[in-house]
Amino acid sequence: MSLIKLINAKSMADDIDTGWQKVPLANRTKGRKSIQTDWVDAGGTLNGTISYYLSNDPNTSKSAELMRTIAIDSAAPDITDATWQNITTPAEWLKVIYTNNGINAGTLRVFLSVED
Questions:
Q1: Among 3, 20, 45, 84, who pairs with 93 as Cys (CB 3.0-4.6 Å)?
Q2: Which residues partner with 87 through β-bridges?
Q3: How far apart are CA 102 and CA 19, in angstroms?
Q4: Distances (CA, A) of 18 to 24, 78, 88, 99
Q5: Which residues pair with 22 in a beta bridge?
Q6: Residue 96 and residue 41: Cα distance in Å, rounded?
Q7: Where are the domains of the chain?
Q8: pTM of the model
Q9: How do residues 67-79 score in pLDDT, each as one tens digit?
Q10: In this structure, which topology does domain 2-114 adopt according to CATH?
Q11: Which of the listed ranges 72-76, 78-82, 109-113 does the model predict with the highest average pLDDT?
């Protein structure tokens, strides 16, 4: 199993854009692929979002697919936040964008897990 740290213990007071990250998701028919999102001690106006995009062309946003957007409306995620997302779309590139929208405290982590 490979674990790729996309966002590792970053402050939630700042907006975060990972940019396009090359990931081992293209042409994979076997193995599970998922993203784990976790945050702790979020504070301020709890109205942030995390969006996940997939693409096979990192040079243009026209071919990017919005995989999912999660609302951050609690100090820490619970089961309803669906912190694990399975990835079924083959892609070579992944981008994560976090927008704080008034969140001024907390720590954010996003990991990609790929079963070999």
A1: 20
A2: none
A3: 22
A4: 16, 24, 21, 12
A5: 93
A6: 20
A7: 2-114
A8: 0.85
A9: 889 888 887 776 5
A10: Jelly Rolls (2.60.120)
A11: 109-113
